[in-house]
Automatic annotation (TrEMBL):
<protein>
    <recommendedName>
        <fullName>Mitochondrial glycoprotein</fullName>
    </recommendedName>
</protein>
<dbReference type="InterPro" id="IPR036561">
    <property type="entry name" value="MAM33_sf"/>
</dbReference>
<dbReference type="InterPro" id="IPR003428">
    <property type="entry name" value="MAM33"/>
</dbReference>
<dbReference type="GO" id="GO:0005759">
    <property type="term" value="C:mitochondrial matrix"/>
</dbReference>
<dbReference type="Pfam" id="PF02330">
    <property type="entry name" value="MAM33"/>
</dbReference>
Amino acid sequence: MAKWVRNLTKGLKAIEDLELLKLLRSEISFELSSNPFQGAETGSLGEFVVDYDSPRSKDVVFRRKLDSGEEVAVSAQLGPPNYDNDLVFQRNAFAKVCVKKPSFSSILQFDCQVYQVDDKSSEFSIDGAYYLRSSMSLIPSVYKGPFFSELDSKLQDALKEYLISKGIGTSLTNFILHYLHKKEQQQYVNWLKKSEDFLTKN
């Protein structure tokens, strides 16, 4: 009796695994054949280059060196889903923009959000702007100054124009949103394939 129950349990488990395998393969096929970001502007890196992009991480780093010797680094990753707006990219991106002048250890750091405005364009807003004496000042416990929203509105506008002059424009923000969403989709497909492989082998 016990052997019969064990065999029945194994049989039911095999059926469940087979159904799960079919679902996984169907989902993989759907993800590979669909283009959820069709119609959205892909943007361009411009003079930035991809400095860091690990298949296991959520964030990416873009870097640019200006003719003046200044270095601009942008670290970005997707934030939580936003279903309030019917847009192609349903998640905003959190980005840290750091500007370093040559021969100086100090850094200007801007905490930004990148978001889609419509099918053709995106924007960025600044949540915080800090002057850091050195890279060691990136420690979160260090007080970095007043909230960005508390600054004079003209200064806020001037700081945004400053970032735009460093290459943080619509083309780059379009690229960041498209790149990060494609990265997330690829990570999802990779996870599905690993699950499929595990079930197939077992």
